[in-house]
# Entry
Amino acid sequence: MQKETAVIALRGKKIFITGGGGFIGSSLAERLADDNRVVLYDVSYKRNSLKYTGLRDHPNVTIYKGDVMDMERIADVVDDDVTHVVHAAAVVGVQKVLNNSMKTIDTNFTGTSCVLRVAAELPKLERFLYFSTSEVFGVNAYQVREDTPVVLGPVKDARWSYSISKVAGEHLVQSFYRENAMPTVIVRPFNIFGPRRVGDHVMKTFILQALQDKTITVHNDGAQIRAWCYIDDLADALEAMLTKRKSVGESFNIGNPVNVLSVYRLAKMIKSQTRSKSKISCRDVNFTDIEQRVPDISKAEKLLDFKPLHDVGKVLMGTIDWYREHLL
# Structure
């Protein structure tokens, strides 16, 4: 039998993407739009990544506005020709979660239930891809595998409403796989970065501060460890999940364990590459932070032939240039 390649191009399919205006949703849509019909669905298209793409004018792309908790609306825009559903919509961002824990849980869990129930009725469904999070592993997630037990933080800490909603979503997705034979797959991304990421993100914040010679503000002591994964590497993994038979019923930790940097080291790298005059200042924060976040990607390497290719030091300048051009 011929070995499956790492990335098998999707062609002639119809792909429905929730959170289609976001960084990851729009990046995946750009990759797929030339050879497929793509339907983007998002609650709002203000202040997001879509406007920095050419997707609005693409002949293969249809854009709808709607809430993932509105199952009737989803059913109206999803027709029987849809072959792939990518559920990326969620309430994200630490401050947004801290201030809106009820909405976070409702949107991330109830919304997932609504999308799943519509997808379950699709006669041509080949894959349902659910976005979970690396935060399911708690504050110390070093070289975590897919079968590493999840860590549920205390109920009184609003920070954990996000990860808890995602864990519950994972259980629901797996239930649809076991009981309805739905071809599901779960992805847990680890610190994705790149041009067009415009939401609440540490790399964007540091870059904009550095470009304006403002103080680069690092939370706590900056010793928090992250494995930075470039958007193109994530997109390779996602396309493999959407096509390779071995992905069905599985979950995957996707990141780049080679690109391990402390948050303070990242700030220094950004300061150097921007030739900024900024000072780096550490500031204590009053919310729980993640101390370590590094994946073991051996399962993705084995089942998806996944191999992240982009070194953070080499692609960081392109990300900096994009922020300089578009957000200053």
